[in-house]
Amino acid sequence: MSREDPVRWRRCVRHFLWNAFFHPFNIILNVLSVISYITSDSPNGCIMLVLVLVSVCLRFYQEYGSSKATMELSELVRCPVKVQRCAGRVIQTELVVQIDQRDVVPGDIIIFEPEDLFPGDVRLLSSKHLVVSQASLTGESWTTEKIADIREDQSTPLLDLRNICFMGTNVVSGSEFGLVIFTGSKTYMSTMFSNIGKKKPPNDFEDGVCRISYVLVAVMLVVVTIIVIVDYTTSSALTESILFGVSVASALTPQMLPLIVNTSLAKGAIFMARDRCIVKSLSAIQDMGSM
């Protein structure tokens, strides 16, 4: 994603803000702060809102900065591809030019050499001892020989086609000419990723935080309800009973936990950045620490 696309960039910013805010403990603190303001306990509600704001800003700043640095690095990376083009209006001559792989379109005839990446799905036109690695698609370490002059059966699995090379794979040895048939979202790799799904499942750390928050909410509701009922039956003052229940709920809530967790993860991301490693998601710090 390029910074020159403002719509996608704003969507990305909203995504980071939503992930930073939508934390179980942040939601609990927000609910308690609203109840505190309703019951005229403004100082306590203001403190909880400040803690939520600091925690959200810290997480958003770290993930936003990491994503921006990653995109800036990707803009610096250029993968030139040799393309056969025709030049001239009256007498057309075939020229071989180098273009960036992002400028390749269906219908281009591309020349590949060892260590080149395929910028799209390619139909081989000619090949010479071509060996391709499909580990990015299959996960298998061994290589596959590709042959242009071969007729495949209709029952042949897609990844076993020997006259087709797929986006994301690379040339191990040999050379070839190929016709680009699909690029971008129409390639096999893109359709495979879209079928898998874009939403990343939560890791053990995020599951643990959610379980703790759910247990805390359940205990809080039970304890606070009992305390409010008992206090109201003894004092007959509903406002004071609710205020006392909110105070108990605030005491049961680890108000500093989101801030402490995000600060610790951000500190780990800063240490990784000093070693020239960009951490796009703060929860990845915990996964690396558990290995």
TrEMBL record:
Alphabetical list of InterPro entries matching this protein: ATPase_P-typ_TM_dom_sf (IPR023298), ATPase_P-typ_transduc_dom_A_sf (IPR008250), ATPase_P-type_domA (IPR059000), Cation_transp_ATPase_P-type (IPR050510)
Transmembrane segments: 16-36, 42-61, 208-230, 242-266
Keywords: Cell membrane, Membrane, Transmembrane, Transmembrane helix
SUPFAM superfamilies, per database record: Calcium ATPase, transduction domain A, Calcium ATPase, transmembrane domain M
Domain of life of the organism encoding this protein: Eukaryota
Any GO molecular function: P-type sodium:potassium-exchanging transporter activity
Main location: membrane
Subcellular localization(s) per the UniProt record: Cell membrane
Residue ranges constituting the P-type ATPase A domain according to the UniProt record: 89-193
Gene3D superfamilies to which the protein is assigned, alphabetical: Calcium-transporting ATPase, cytoplasmic transduction domain A, Calcium-transporting ATPase, transmembrane domain
Membrane topology: Multi-pass membrane protein
GO biological process annotation, one example: intracellular potassium ion homeostasis
GO cellular component: plasma membrane
Name the UniProt record assigns to this protein: P-type ATPase A domain-containing protein
Lineage: Eukaryota, Viridiplantae, Streptophyta, Embryophyta, Tracheophyta
